[in-house]
Folylpolyglutamate synthase
Amino acid sequence: MAARGDSSYEEALAALSSLITKRSRADKSNKGDRFELVFDYLKLLDLEEDMLKMKVIHVAGTKGKGSTCAFTESILRNHGFRTGLFTSPHLIDVRERFRLDGVDISEEKFLSYFWWCYNRLKERTNEEIPMPTYFRFLALLAFKIFAAEEVDAAILEVGLGGKFDATNAVQKPVVCGVSSLGYDHMEILVSSSSLPIFQLGVPAFTVPQPDEAMRVLEEKASELDVNLEVMQPLTARLLSGQKLGLDGDHQYVNAGLAVSLATTWLQKFGNLEVPSPTQMSILPQQFVRGLATASLQGRAQVVPDQFIESRTSGDLVFYLDGAHSPESMEVCAKWFSSAVKGDNQSESSKHLVNGSAGSSHEKWSGETCQQILLFNCMSVRDPNLLLPHLRNTCANHGIHFKKALFVPNMSVYHKVGTAADLPENDPHVDLSWQFTLQKVWESLVKSDKGNAEGEEYRGKDGESSSGNSEVFTSLPMAIKWLRDSVHESSSSTRFQVLVTGSLHLVGDVLRLIRK
Ligand SMILES: Nc1ncnc2c1ncn2[C@@H]1O[C@H](COP(=O)(O)OP(=O)(O)OP(=O)(O)O)[C@@H](O)[C@H]1O
Ligand SMILES: [Mg+2]
Ligand SMILES: [Mg+2]
């Protein structure tokens, strides 16, 4: 490998960030956007041969790509194979996107591969072949890392999607997966950006899809002679009682897809007999272990505030999920509802002196737990879809938010930060979007009040609308408000905060609440 630049991690991130701003300039001439350039870059990086040898599992879709990849990686690793995993986006540190044997790449390795690629491209690019865009650079870096580290299997999540996604530089993956197709941020079902790039003769698996989506998939598959199979969600029985490493009912869908992807890979390269998933009554032990230990930050993650000074830990608990589409809002709401109920039940049993779980549970879940929503989403999303989905699904499961907090995101899209960076606080921040979100929320509260038979909201009529929601100028202010509220509340109140709407928001919250 080339000599390592004597640069700090921050310098590498600054160089990486420069590719983000480059992108908009390149867009104007459109030169930097041609897909064929990816092959030029591979040549410049001497990666052509390595790419042909790489044993890739390629995963596209609208929802559940990252989770499917994480399960697949974990299964193969638990069979003793060396793995490389490339996912997006990252929450806190860009190194999360590159895992080797299940662990984020070390800073040292990251730096050495980063500068190797970056400097080489800087030297060899020109007017005709400009520096790659940010997303392409990350994919190229993943190829370099996985080739140099000689992983047995490379599991790649499609990033931007569509034909022009840099991961399509892999021309002959071993197998291709299509996770749930849903509405993208333009609220289009089956947008070209979530479709997989089927490759001639490469087997593909998908999950049960809405009719329209399945029709498009089957059409695409038959055009390319691709054998497309639909995998049913895993069942608890197949897992022989173990829980999946990622929480939420929808993960059984992703795990089912992961089992078929891993099986196909293992049947080809594993030198072992692996039965087809449909023939198994219980999954082999390595599969179960892989599925039970898979992890991915910011998806159905529960983190108690680690900075709060309080009587008992667990007075302020964050439930984080980066859902940002209508369907994922719904699965997120279901997960949150059952997670808080489960947590309150197990907490209440801890507080029991002599049995009688029923009455104690009532006390905890009814009076002393408050659910609060902490929300932001990008302005391309439609809050009139997201917020009602979230609120109604929770309400149907008996969870009613006491208050909703709306905040701007802190991390900025044009700068790649580190865990050590606290995102910037902009005093001139424009909050008009957050007020729009608040208005949507308030109108939901109002229409509920109109419909409610009284019981639920009786006695609150005098409250000003701001009692149900609040806009904060920054995330730290919102977190401070939550901590203060815990201190001011009666000693047995637990605050359970659902953080959702944006993975960036989830990442920002994690930076502020974890030591
Ligand atoms: N099968 C599914 N069906 C519906 N929603 C899902 C499914 N799997 C995951 N989700 C939701 O989508 C969120 C993101 O999950 P994941 O990271 O696995 O998907 P992704 O396709 O990689 O998303 P992104 O577009 O953010 O890269 C989860 O937090 C969850 O709320
Ligand atoms: Mg997406
Ligand atoms: Mg993802």
Remarks:
- The chain has 15 helices and 14 strands.
- Residues 65-66, 87-88, 157 surround magnesium ion (ligand 3) (CB under 6 Å).
- Residues 181 and 210 are 8 Å apart (CA to CA).
- The two ends are 35 Å apart (CA to CA).
